[in-house]
User: Which sequence fits this backbone?
């Protein structure tokens, strides 16, 4: 049986109440008040599509061995790199093997389901036993636009495989149209769209029902047999009309997370699917439909195995870990939509030396350290001479991935001098669980959250952006685990 | 066990420029200012100098690499000149090179210089640079010096279970005392007495350090001319002489930053260097035998933990000693009689030699009454370069022959 083995969503911690945007920009475009309900998720200034995909992927793989993943597909329309395989950075951070299939899926917010279908077909074709589809987006609308109101930042990950399947893959139906309701040129930062009435009436309202009809016909299904229909559509009116026209019961339609997170582009269908899986029961039929220059409709049937699937609230948890973000200027600065003065300290040279990074890629991407075969001391970064002063064995090391281990705070501070878009810079010494130590940045917390001895977990983040060379460098940061554990 | 260099090297003369924001002066001007004083004190001419060492840390904003800048600035006539860099211990490293040159018999009269021109950086504090190499730049935080040293406080609080309020009180007294001493010193960068409440209530730079817990970033130069005690006796007959009693350096092995034993509440290197220096100098009880110290108070918290790392204050007792005035100018062990890094200023490459300049002149009782330590026999200087988890510590003990 081919199907879903695991799922997770990642909604970043900060949530901007949309009324903040109205308060700041309503003078320019009063119509944005129509979309002012709820909150949108805002990626931290050290997050992007890659890091959010990694965060979702880590949660998705938490009871699996990353070395068992045979393919990793990453979908986004906001890839940090046009050329440099973004999926390989995600794979590195998740500490997969290096002899795997990877690909980036892009060009449309339908790319998330395209990645998922390719993962399913990779396993279905017998090319591998497990494939991970990750998606994340961090899309921008111009300041004061409708897109700015509705877009939110999030990531999602679906692990598919050929055994221990919690939702069986039944089949799919796809359409592809050069329907240009919105687009972003190769050199543009912001989404641009055509008239909303046209998008609503000829876009969502025609293409989504068509895809649903198509898959039902292909697999000889009655719509009433579907337990949950999962589709994104950020026009509330169009959504109601689609539901009404199809005769769907309220309970049959998956909530679109617009009130809690916003439309996360490529990730959104997978995020909604993951949310539906939280509540699904054996025998449920889940119909996922994506929308973006056409549609992918994918049908799943939930299996008995879901009853044994632990720790299912993998989107709700992330939604609960939230903090109000009430500073619209800060949002603009974080998304590089406002030139801000970081001082000369913020102009330090950020050239990344790629040959050095290559040699140390596992230490950097996978947070891989070493463990001494003689005395068992775990250490980071990987050492050739054991750091234990009573041992000192040379070249007697095995690899050990530390990213999932967590650790404890040894010392910490909050630094107003360091140049950062999220001052104060908070960092401190961390002891890894099982041994080893590293001075690390903290993120997604305030100084008041921290205490010596407190447990932390690690999150893959943007370390710096080299704006002279349009080059993002990633590394791991620490997050106090206290709150996350309480929320879980 | 090596015999060390105790009483094998004498200081013949010293010089120190005014420290501060020397907007109108180049590194060469600062060097010349210290050099003229140093030559005059030694009673020598430039041609008498046989070799030179120059300590400088942030070469990229000042003198560049190699020994050429010093030789070119002072037009030293084709003698060996070596630039040394070992973080904030660079000045003491230059002195160490000069002392070893004399003690080995390779040269008779040697110059040790230090200079730093920091006020061409363009912003406050020290510039960010990959001081621990390129991999470290990629995996360590974009940290600043105050942030790294501030962590001594959270770790010290945890280790000794001493409330942060008391630590803050003690480090406030440290800065207050340095301002008291610095205000009397015509060469100091910051020459203003300030109240403890001004210090304590200053805005946080890095918790729990406020603005007045951080030392000045200054331009300056200091230097020494060293020789053998025999030559010094000939050149300056019948005068008191200052000789080197111990000179030790300890560098982090990586254990503090990578192994799990160090608790972050003090400096491992300072303990190693102090132990070796006391052995070399023959000091058994530092609390009783040392009369005055100039320590690396880059931040007030560094000075506080250093009192214990030098084994002058017992573990957990530094805050009490500090608050009881033990380290005040008229206390049992005067600490920072010249104002320290805090107020005299911290031109990195010059700082170690500036500390020696203070010890040397105090030993010779050359200062006016209001900043004089009464008849000291032994003085200690201490530099700490890098960050608490990875650093270089130098300790020099000097005394009357």
Assistant:
């Amino acid at each position: 049986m081919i199907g879903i083995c695991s799922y997770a969503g990642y909604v970043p911690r900060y949530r901007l109440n949309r009324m903040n945007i109205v308060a700041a920009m309503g003078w320019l475009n009063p119509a944005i008040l129509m979309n002012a309900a709820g909150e949108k998720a805002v990626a931290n200034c050290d997050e992007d599509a890659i890091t959010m995909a990694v965060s979702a992927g880590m949660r998705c793989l938490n009871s699996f061995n990353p070395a068992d993943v045979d393919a990793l597909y990453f979908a986004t329309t906001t890839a940090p790199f046009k050329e440099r395989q973004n999926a390989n950075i995600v794979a590195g951070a998740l500490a997969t093997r290096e002899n795997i299939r990877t690909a980036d899926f892009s060009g449309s917010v339908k790319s998330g389901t395209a990645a998922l279908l390719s993962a399913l077909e990779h396993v279905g074709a017998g090319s591998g036993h497990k494939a991970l589809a990750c998606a994340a987006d961090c899309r921008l609308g111009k300041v004061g636009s409708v897109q700015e109101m509705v877009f939110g930042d999030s990531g999602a990950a679906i692990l598919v495989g050929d055994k221990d399947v919690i939702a069986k893959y039944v089949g799919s139906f796809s359409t592809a149209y050069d329907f240009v309701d919105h687009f972003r040129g190769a050199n543009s930062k912001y989404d641009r769209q055509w008239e909303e009435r046209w998008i609503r009436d000829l876009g969502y309202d025609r293409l989504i029902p068509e895809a649903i009809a198509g898959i039902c016909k292909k697999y000889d299904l009655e719509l009433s047999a579907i337990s949950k229909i999962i589709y994104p559509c950020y026009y509330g009116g169009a959504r109601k009309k689609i539901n009404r026209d199809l005769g769907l019961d309220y309970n049959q339609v998956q909530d679109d997370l617009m009130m809690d997170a916003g439309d996360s582009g490529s990730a959104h269908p997978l995020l909604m699917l993951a949310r539906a899986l939280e509540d699904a029961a054996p025998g449920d039929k889940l119909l996922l439909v994506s929308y973006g220059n056409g549609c992918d409709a994918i049908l799943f049937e939930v299996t008995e195995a879901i009853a044994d699937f632990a720790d299912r609230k993998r989107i709700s948890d992330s939604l609960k870990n939230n903090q109000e973000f009430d500073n619209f200027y800060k949002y603009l600065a974080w998304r590089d939509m406002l030139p801000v003065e970081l001082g000369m300290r913020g102009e330090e040279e950020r050239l990344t030396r790629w040959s050095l990074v290559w040699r140390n890629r596992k230490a950097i991407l996978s947070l891989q350290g070493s463990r001494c075969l003689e005395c068992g001391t775990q250490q980071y970064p990987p050492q050739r001479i054991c750091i234990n002063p009573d041992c000192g064995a040379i070249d007697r090391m095995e690899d050990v991935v530390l990213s999932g281990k967590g650790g404890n705070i040894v010392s910490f501070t909050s630094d107003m001098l360091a140049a950062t878009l999220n001052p104060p810079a908070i960092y401190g010494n961390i002891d890894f669980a099982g041994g080893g130590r590293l001075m690390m940045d903290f993120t997604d917390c305030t100084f008041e959250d921290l205490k010596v001895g407190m447990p932390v977990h690690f999150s893959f983040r943007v370390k710096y952006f080299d704006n002279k060379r349009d080059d993002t460098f990633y590394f791991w940061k620490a997050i106090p685990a206290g709150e996350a554990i309480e929320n879980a | 066990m090596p015999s060390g260099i105790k009483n094998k090297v004498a200081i013949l003369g010293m010089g120190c420029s005014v420290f501060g924001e020397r907007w109108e002066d180049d590194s060469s001007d600062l060097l010349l200012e210290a050099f003229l004083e140093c030559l005059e004190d030694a009673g020598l001419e430039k041609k008498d100098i046989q070799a030179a060492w120059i300590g400088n840390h942030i070469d990229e904003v000042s003198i560049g690499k190699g020994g050429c800048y010093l030789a070119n600035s002072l037009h030293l006539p084709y003698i060996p000149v070596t630039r040394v860099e070992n973080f904030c211990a660079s000045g003491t490293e230059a002195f160490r090179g000069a002392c070893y040159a004399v003690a080995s018999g390779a040269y008779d009269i040697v110059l040790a210089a230090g200079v730093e021109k920091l006020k061409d950086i363009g912003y406050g504090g020290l510039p960010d640079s990959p001081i621990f190499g390129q991999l470290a730049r990629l995996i360590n935080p974009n940290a600043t010096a105050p942030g790294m040293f501030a962590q001594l406080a959270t770790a010290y609080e945890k280790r000794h279970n001493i409330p942060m309020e008391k630590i803050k009180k003690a480090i406030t007294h440290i800065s207050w005392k340095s301002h008291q001493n610095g205000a009397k010193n015509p060469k100091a960068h910051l020459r203003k007495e300030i109240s403890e409440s001004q210090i304590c209530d200053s805005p946080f730079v890095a918790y729990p350090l406020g603005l007045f817990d951080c030392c000045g970033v200054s331009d300056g130069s200091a230097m020494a001319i060293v020789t053998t005690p025999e030559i010094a006796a000939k050149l300056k007959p019948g005068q008191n002489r200052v000789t080197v009693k111990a000179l030790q350096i300890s560098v982090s092995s990586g254990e503090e930053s990578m192994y799990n034993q160090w608790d972050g509440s003090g400096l491992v290197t300072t303990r190693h260097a102090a132990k070796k220096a006391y052995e070399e100098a023959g000091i058994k009880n530092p609390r009783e035998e040392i009369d005055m110290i100039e320590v690396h108070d880059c931040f007030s918290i560094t000075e506080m933990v250093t009192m214990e790392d030098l084994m002058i204050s017992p573990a957990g007792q530094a805050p009490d000693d500090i608050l009881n005035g033990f380290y005040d100018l008229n206390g049992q062990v005067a600490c920072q009689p010249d104002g320290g890094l805090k107020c005299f200023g911290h031109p990195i490459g010059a700082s170690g030699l500036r500390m020696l300049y203070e010890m040397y002149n105090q030993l010779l009782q050359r200062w006016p009454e209001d900043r004089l330590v009464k008849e000291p026999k032994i003085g200690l200087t201490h530099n700490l370069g890098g960050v608490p988890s990875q650093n270089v510590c130098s300790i020099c003990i000097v005394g009357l022959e």
Notes: Chain A has two domains: 3-334, 344-353+403-487. Residues 196-218 of chain A form the longest helix (23 residues). Confidence is low (pLDDT under 50) at residues 483-488 of chain A.
